[in-house]
Amino acid sequence: MRQTAEVTGQLLARAQAGDGNAFAELTEPFRRELQVHCYRILGSAADAEDMLQETMMAAWRGLDGFEGRASLRTWLHAIATNKCLNHLRASRSLVPRPPDVPLPEPTRSGEPLWLEPYPDALLGDLPDAAPGPEARYETRESVSLAFVTALQHLPPRQRAALVLRDVLGFSAAETAAILDCTVDAANNLLKRSRATIAGQLPPGCRDQAPLPGSAREQEITARFADAFERGDVHAVVGLLTDDAWLTMPPLPFEYQGRDTIGHFYEAVVFRYGTRHSRLIPTRANGQPAFGRYLRDPHSPVVRAHGLIVLTLAGDRISAITGFTDNSVLPRFGLPRTLPE
């Protein structure tokens, strides 16, 4: 909850006088929004946490220079945005580790996409509606895997401009100030980013999804988990839309369609007979998800094998996104091993 202007003024004065507790209280209402802002731009929950900490340290060191010409929210987002852009400039492209088995021919392939899922537990205190009158996307849509994935296909400054304007609702003038450019330049960045992202996002995908936690969502995910744990490829494929996608960031290989996905599962996921899995339900990016565990043939445990996130459309699954990096599991409260 945002503070009143009077409380904010009192906390700011104390913080500028060196009161660390006042600074923490002053910035607390913005921390979650800032962290998710960094996640949208970077696509990495781990990097978002790091950039949030860098933002807070920079804000504390530079608080004396805050004169109130812009709101505190705008000032903090300016710091966070530029921390993220600098991080992207300094980051080196990594080559994803190849899989242990040969993969079937994909429907399409491109550049590796470094993307991580984001736990719903860290989204609970975000507003449900768009935070500004100029925003085009509601919170639920703007944290979806489809949206965050589409953002990663944009150049960094276009990515930032679109998030600032269409997600957070900042004005053209505020966005230009944050990006240190003219209003015309900021508008051009936004225009190009909107044109690109329109071709990346499935039309109306979020409108078709069941409400989170609804009976329909629970029924679909329960049927998927049952079929997947039994290694029943036919049943899994039967839950998919005709044009469903299977992706596995950062691998650049993507598979579309029931037959193609079914062949991938038979050749790779369940290549050793049924290769029984155990799925532990969780939520990521506002969507149903599962921690996946495989039975260890040499001990009475199941070992983590990444995370599966489902995108739903009506009473079907329109996308399955698999993350095989077990380092994401602790953010979801999931262990590396479980008793069988």
Largest sheet, if any? 8 strands, mixed
CATH fold-level assignment of the largest domain: Nuclear Transport Factor 2, Chain: A
Oligomerization state: single chain
CATH architecture of the largest domain: Roll
What is the class of the largest domain in the CATH system? Answer: Alpha Beta
Number of helices: 13
Describe this entry's structure for a reader.
There is one protein chain. With 340 residues, the protein is of the alpha+beta class. It folds into three domains: 1-91, Rna Polymerase Sigma Factor, Chain: A, CATH 1.10.1740; 128-201, Orthogonal Bundle (Arc Repressor Mutant, subunit A), CATH 1.10.10.10; 208-339, Nuclear Transport Factor 2, Chain: A (Roll). Helices cover 46% and strands 16% of the residues. Strands 1, 2, 3, 4, 5, 6, 7 and 8 form an eight-stranded mixed sheet that branches. The termini are far apart. The mean pLDDT is 92.
Provide a concise account of the structure shown:
This protein is an alpha+beta fold and 340 residues long. It is built from 13 helices and eight strands.
Which properties best describe this structure?
single chain, 340 residues, alpha+beta, Rna Polymerase Sigma Factor, Chain: A, Arc Repressor Mutant, subunit A, Nuclear Transport Factor 2, Chain: A, 3 domains, eight-stranded mixed sheet, 13 helices, 46% helix, globular
